[in-house]
Each structure stands twice: as C-alpha cells, then as structure tokens.
Amino acid sequence: MEISGSSARQTRNRDHISIDIRHGDHLVASIRRKMETISSPAECTQSFAKLAFHFFKYMIPGDPQIHQQKFSEEGNHILDLICHCLLPTYPGVKGTNSDQKHFRCATGLQAAGIRIKGSRTKNLLDIKFARGVLEIPHVIIHQYTESLFRNLIALEHSSSDGVQHITSYVFLMKSLVGSDKDVKLLQKKDILTNYDVTEKEVATLFEKLCEGVDLNESCYGGLFDQVKGHKSTWTTWHLWNLIFRTDLCSSPFLSNLAIYHLMKMLTK
Question: Which PANTHER family match (predicted)?
C-alpha cells in the first residue's frame, strides 16, 4: 500500500480494482460507491446494493417493492439506506401542544369515538387523521424489530438535521399499544401482525424502545392536536345526545347538567 497526502490507493492485481480511500466524512460513502459496482463471484450480475436489499428486505417494515426503489438511492451505509426507505412521503404538521409524547391508547381512542383503521398506503410513517378516522399503515413485529428500531433511533440522534421520524413513530406506537388489549385491537384492524412475539411482548416492546430516548419535537404533533380536538367535540356531542334522549323531567341531575352546559356554550 502506498500512502500519499490525504489519500491512499490500494490495488488488487487479480481483479484490477482500484479503491480510493479518503479521510473524513467521505470515507464510508467512497467505499460504498466502489462496492456498488463490484459483483462477486463472477457469475453474479447484481450490485452490492441489490444484494444487501435482498438480505434485509424482510426485516424492513413496509412494502418491499417500494423499499427496493428507495434502497438503490444514495446513502452512507446500510442503516442509512434502511432509514431512507421508511421516510414519510409528506411532511408532518407541527403541533401547538407542548406535550407531544403522550397519546391515548388504541382502545381509549376507540372508546372516545375515534375510528381506527388500517391504511392503504404502504409507507410505515404515513399516519393521518381525517373526519374522525385515524389511519395507520400495517406493521409486522418480529424478532428483529427491536434491534432494527434501536439502531434507527441511534442513527437519528447522531444526525444534525434534527428530524426524528423514526423516534416520533416509536413514541406514537408506545402510546397506542399500552396493553395486550390494544395489540389485539390493532390486529383486528389489520394494522399490526406479530411473529415470534406475544401480544404482551409487543405491548412492552415500544415502551422499552422509548426508555432513555429524548424526543425533541414529534413529527405527529399536528395529528395529536387534531385527534384531541375531535375527542373534545365528540364528547360534547355524545353528552348532549345522551341528555336529550333521556327524559329530563325524570332526573333533576340531568336537567341541571343540561342547563349548565347550555350556559357554558352561550358564554363562549
């Protein structure tokens, strides 16, 4: 090996391959670009990126066909490529609520009048709320899920851009699956499938992932505000519906309650 200045050149005579290794941040990217063009053994016609994708594709949550297109794009390393596959297709809306880490569990949201359904989108992070319906893409939980998310969270916290997409998703799921009852509800809605793990293990998985992790600003802050606003409206409507479907004259308590809420609405 011959070293000169800030670069080194190593030549493999057998395959006539020259690999430039540069110092600093370009080191990993330079190696990866070179490896992408290498196919070994000789009868293999696929690039390094394609071979890596075929190895990891069933570990990555979401649609493999969509991930394959994104996986071939530029990235510094394998984990960076996996993270790129999971990025949402549209930006999140900032929330006005300072508490963006806590959300009601799935069964609690359903009890409050929120309809939960599986989303048709294949992108894991594309969660949306509209007209009282919370749509969540399908996710498969398996023995590699915890390790994968831990590494993705660590990657996000080592980045300087400050956007924490994966961390926001994990905190959201932690709130939704507070117990095995929530897990069973999401299973019924075709939102969650768990392999090699029980419902109780799924319920504790996201809680463990959030331990010791800081979330600066959730990408789902705006979604939190929308859901909480809808819950308040639905609760008021449900109360009025209950009151007027009941004989007010038979219950002085309900009569007083109706008058109280009427005065409260008129003074807003």
Answer: BNAA09G04570D PROTEIN, BNAC04G53230D PROTEIN
Residue 219 structural domain:
106-223
Which region among 164-168, 190-194, 246-250 has the lowest average model confidence (pLDDT)?
A: 246-250
Are residues 212 and 243 both part of a single domain? no
Q: Are residues 138 and 195 in the same domain?
A: yes
Is it the case that residue 58 has pLDDT exceeding 60? yes
Q: What is the mean pLDDT of the chain?
A: 74
237 is a domain residue: yes
- SS3 state of residue 146: helix
Residue 186 has pLDDT above 80, yes or no: yes
Residue matched to tokens 């994708």? 53
Long-range contacts, stretch 150-156, CB < 8 angstroms, 24+ apart:
150/209, 151/79, 152/79, 152/82, 152/83, 152/86, 153/209, 153/213, 155/79, 155/80, 155/83, 156/83
